[in-house]
Write a structure and sequence with these properties.
By secondary structure, this protein is of the alpha/beta class. Helices cover about 25% and strands about 35% of the residues. The strands form two sheets. A six-stranded antiparallel sheet has the order 4-3-6-1-2-5. A six-stranded parallel sheet has the order 10-9-8-7-11-12, with helices on both faces.
């Protein structure tokens, strides 16, 4: 079966931090683009001749919807051809070609009998935002969800207002933010690893960890969860960014 490519028109670009923006695409297709929260698509960008030069994958940051709109939370990386193109050349009305959705980093089918612990750094929050918005939109019952977000300083936080709204709305949702390079009241000073090592040190078989972020963080979290705390790998899923 041939891969289907879609054309998306950029309808909004919203600055989230000084190096991170949210790009909204309107899909130019009559059929509803169905995806599961947590999945990603692959852009084909005009930044090279070969496929490996042109293709970049980004997690969808919003919940599935009937408006055929996709949101992407993208950070500008130094020397990155793709992000340089997106931040320098893409404007409202620009067209982006993409394929998907792909990926198995999706919500567990049963949320009512498990605790779901989400660990992320930076734009690794994108698939979790999609999941949380989907749960809220459809009022999906869940036992407990706890998100731990690691970043350098408060200026690089993403969607904290949305997290505050969810926390106020659901007694069984909570979150912690770890700032590695800034000391502020109400935040943990250090790395996200410190938080789950303390809060979830008593191993429970009714708990699942989802991890998304840069490979170094994911590898360290996997090591600490399995070897330091003793969780089986079957209770852990991860999605790598670079």
């Amino acid at each position: 079966m041939a891969t289907k490519w879609y054309n998306g028109i950029v309808t909004n670009i919203k600055s989230l931090t000084n190096i991170t923006s949210q790009f909204t695409l309107k899909i130019q297709d009559e059929e509803i683009f169905n995806f599961q929260p947590g999945q990603f698509v692959t852009f084909d960008l005009p930044i090279g001749e070969k496929r490996l030069q042109r293709w970049r994958s980004y997690s969808i940051a919003n919940a599935p919807n009937d408006a055929n709109e996709l949101e992407f939370c993208i950070v500008k990386s130094d020397g990155g051809l793709a992000t340089n193109y997106l931040f320098s050349d893409v404007r409202i009305g620009s067209e982006i070609k993409f394929k998907g959705p792909d990926g198995v980093f999706v919500l567990p089918k049963d949320l009512i009998s498990i605790e779901l612990i989400m660990l992320c750094t930076g734009t690794g929050f994108a698939p979790f935002r999609s999941m949380l918005l989907h749960i809220d939109k459809h009022q999906i019952p869940f036992k407990k969800i706890h998100l731990i977000f690691g970043t350098r300083n408060a200026n690089s936080l993403l969607y904290k207002d949305e997290l505050d709204e969810l926390k106020a709305k659901y007694a069984n949702f909570d979150y912690d933010i770890a700032l590695s390079r800034e000391i502020l009241d109400g935040f943990h000073h250090g790395y996200l690893h410190d938080i789950y090592l303390e809060k979830f040190k008593d191993v429970s078989e009714d708990r699942k960890f989802y991890i998304c972020g840069w490979s170094g963080m994911v590898d360290e979290a996997m090591e600490k969860l399995t070897h330091t705390l003793g969780y089986p790998k079957s209770q852990i899923r991860n999605e790598l960014y670079g």
